[in-house]
Structures are given as C-alpha cells and as structure tokens.
Amino acid sequence: MALLKILQYPDRRLHTLAEPVTEVTDAIRRLAADMAETMYTAPGVGLAATQVDRHIRMIVIDVSEKKDDLKVYINPEILERDGEVCHEEGCLSVPGIYEKVSRAEHVRIRAQNAEGQLFEQEAHSLLATCLQHEIDHLHGRVFVEYLSRLKQDRIRNKLLKQQRETM
Ligand code: K1U
Ligand code: ZN
Known about the structure:
The chain is α+β, with helices and mostly antiparallel strands. 28% of the residues lie in helices and 26% in strands. The protein has three helices and seven strands. The chain has a five-stranded antiparallel sheet, sandwiched between helices. A two-stranded antiparallel ribbon has the order 4-5. The relative contact order is 0.19. Zinc ion binds next to helix 2.
C-alpha cells in the first residue's frame, strides 16, 4: 500500500468532475486501499479520489470509533434526501478549517462495492454528512463553497500563505 498526496485548496484540480468507474479491477481495488491508508493516516473519516488527483467516482469512508468499518463506494449516487441539519465539517484538502454547513439529515444512496456489486444504504448523522461531502468532491465541489464569499476569500488567502511558508 502507499500514502497518496492530498491536493490542498485552492488547487484548481479539486474542481475536476470525476468520471464513472466502468469496471472494478484490481487497480481500482489497489487505489481504494491506498486511499484508505491515506485517510487513516491523515487522520480523517472520508476521502474522495478527486482529493488524491484521481478523477474517478470512488470514495472511502470510515466513521466508526474503532476505525474498523471501512466502506468503499464506487459510482455513488444520492437517491433520496430528507430533512436538514447543520454540522461542523472539516476537509483534509482544507487543513485547519472547520465550519458549519447545512445539508440533508438523511440520505439514501446507491453505489458499487469493491467487488463491483450494487448496494443501497440509508445514512444519517455523521455518515450522511460525510457521504454528501465526499460526493460533492466527485462533482468538483469543496465544502468552503457553501460559505460566504468573504469567508471563502479569507480561507483561500490563509491557505495560500501557509502553502508559501512551507515551500
Ligand atoms: O477531506 C475529507 O473529505 C474528509 C473529511 C470528511 C468529513 C468530516 C467531517 C464532516 C464532513 C466530512 C475529514 O475527515 S476532516 C477530518 C475529520 O473530520 C476528523 C479527523 C480526525 C478524527 C475524526 C474526524
Ligand atoms: Zn473534503
């Protein structure tokens, strides 16, 4: 397995629209394993392929306390959304920034697993928030884009300054 480099906001590659996965091959499973290792090491509770500069529709999530419940979602789609909640979100591509974002409270999704089998899942609380956040990445959307223009500009300038200082 390998640790992958996570793109940092405001890298424009984070705005790339991901392509569907047409066949779940060993290479896709290897990428899922590398993404999981990268997510656990960061540490985070989710990671989208977009964030590691692979523009295919795949995400990994583990919201369990013991970090022993890895889920791989290939070609995920949201079938239903219900309710509204406002939770604080973070993003491994936007380090050190935590902001409240309003999203659906429950979602029902359909995806393929690492064996290529279709499944559906009902999700609420952190899993629902995380699924919506990661599926947004596959559409090229970063959570800061839900914030005011002023906040977005402040975050952009802060991260650009940090990136210049660590070059
Ligand atoms: O970068 C990402 O997309 C992952 C992101 C997922 C997420 C978290 C919270 C709300 C919405 C989406 C993160 O994992 S940020 C880091 C984080 O939340 C965390 C880090 C260590 C332990 C527990 C959580
Ligand atoms: Zn993110």
